[in-house]
Amino acid sequence: MREGARILGLPLAAWPRILAPLLMATLLLGGWEIAVRHLGLPPYVLPGPVAIGGALAADLPTLASALAVTLRVTALALVAAVTTGVGLSLLFSGSRLMEMTFLPLAVMLQVTPIVAIAPLIIIWVDNVQAALLICAWIVAFFPILSNTTAGLNGTDRNLADLFRLYGASRWQTLWQLRLPWAMPFFLAGLRISGGLSLIGAVVAEFVAGAGGTGSGLAYRILEAGYQLQIPRMFAALALISLAGVVIFLALSLVSHLALRRWHESAVGKEH
Amino acid sequence: MPPTALAASTPETAAPPLVGLRGVSKRYANGTLAVQGLDLEIGAGSFVSLLGPSGCGKSTVLRMIAGLTPPSAGRIDWPRGTPRLGFVFQEPTLMPWQRALDNVALPLKLARMARAERHARARRMLELVGLADFAGSYPRELSGGMRMRVSIARALVTEPELLLLDEPFAALDEITRFRLNNDLLRLWGERRFTAVFVTHSVFESVYLSQRVAVMAAHPGRLHAELPVEAPGARDEAFRTSPDYAALCRTVSTALEGAMAA
Ligand SMILES: Nc1ncnc2c1ncn2[C@@H]1O[C@H](COP(=O)(O)OP(=O)(O)OP(=O)(O)O)[C@@H](O)[C@H]1O
Ligand SMILES: [Mg+2]
């Protein structure tokens, strides 16, 4: 890359990518606040960003601990999704029979809406946290499974022949060819699954409606709704979206760092 | 062409060949008869081209020699024992996640050679193909011709006795192709491996090889074997010489015959 002018250590060309969404957000929030004030909407119908910010600041300790609870379920579900997704796709790519046996089951789990299964899981599993985890995992694991399987089975034929020609063992072929080949596919699945496990966790919390000290953000939304504390409801909602965006950005960064030297998807458009 | 004339013109066939294909046929699972009744001997140290129209089974023959696919009839004999193989595919076929050096070192790594040793050898091979400065580059940072040279370096790193090349330069521009032709001839002169070179270019086959095997299609079979008698150096002067033009004409006529057959 050519060295150009820099502002605050960032190249000039990188700034629009940061400034454009910020400007958009500012305009949107400003317009919202003005509209709420101008139309004289009461906060229990639609609070403005200032009121929401106030609620967020006032209830920060409760909301933050609720966020931590939800994020914990999300993270555990994502770890479980990665482990089982990658494990199953290794099994599937090693044996057609396994794939034929278990793939339909995985597809069924994927296409059945989680809100429909969640009540059953919550009834069957005594431990609420475990039930939430299972729900979030069901939503999150499929993209990893299907993407990684596609990657493991899509190895370049000539490269596979090359490995055969030089007498590579199954193990060498797996570690040095098929897994690296599947890496971009897996990472694409991971980015989708990160967002999905948050959604799964929140949906399950809604269904469970679990209160008490260990409750997550969804419960705080329900609670605020019952009490007609609409600004707090919005504050919790904002935290969930923010968490989703952060998860997506973090996983995108992981993906970028893992692929930056060799994969086209990780190379900037201007190169 | 009568066999006696061939034997006289190509002394390589007098000694036991490196590999002999005897009545080799290949029928794929879908019923396609790709190769039928192929007899071909390749002498140790020789440079043989397989020339033929698209789909006549050239790649299939090469893959059978490499042991990547078994013949469905006939035998492949190795009178001098099975040699070490190198294979250059039509595409560079590099691992995009590895630097050029590690791509070249792959065959040695698969043979579990120690890291320092295999890197030293891979580095020498990169020097040989003129890419010493690009050892740390990833394939996507190299041009098409450079990638092909990495691929050739990888095929040579095991010091193969038999190098199989499947239209390695087909996707390259003419200038790069000429340069890589010269590189290949120089390496062949230095290392004296046996080369089987698949191409559909008459000019390339004549420029490079000592013998051209012309194949006909549907089913793939041997149409003619033509010696390329050009004792002098293969260089740019040869490329523009009347001898070269005459040889190309002969091979071209044989190829036309093969297409009509
Ligand atoms: N794996 C395969 N399964 C079935 N048929 C195949 C397979 N590979 C090649 N064939 C068929 O065998 C015939 C010969 O193919 P091959 O690839 O050997 O030709 P080729 O001479 O190398 O052609 P080209 O110059 O286009 O590379 C073709 O008709 C092709 O369709
Ligand atoms: Mg071919």
TrEMBL record, chain A:
It is a multi-pass membrane protein. GO terms for cellular component: plasma membrane. Keywords: Cell membrane, Membrane, Transmembrane, Transmembrane helix, Transport. It is found in: Cell membrane. GO terms for biological process: transmembrane transport. It comes from the Bacteria. The chain crosses the membrane at residues 12-32, 73-93, 105-125, 131-152, 198-222, 234-259. Its main location: membrane. Residues 67-255 form the ABC transmembrane type-1 domain. SUPFAM superfamilies: MetI-like. InterPro entries: MetI-like, MetI-like_sf. Gene3D superfamilies: MetI-like (1.10.3720.10). Belongs to the binding-protein-dependent transport system permease family. This is NitT/TauT family transport system permease protein. It comes from Muricoccus pecuniae.
From TrEMBL, chain B:
InterPro entries: AAA+_ATPase, ABC_transporter-like_ATP-bd, ABC_transporter-like_CS, ABC_transporter_ATP-bind, P-loop_NTPase. One of its GO terms (molecular function) is ATP binding. Gene3D superfamilies: P-loop containing nucleotide triphosphate hydrolases (3.40.50.300). Residues 19-250 form the ABC transporter domain. Keywords: ATP-binding, Nucleotide-binding, Transport. The keyword ATP-binding applies. Belongs to the ABC transporter superfamily. This is NitT/TauT family transport system ATP-binding protein.
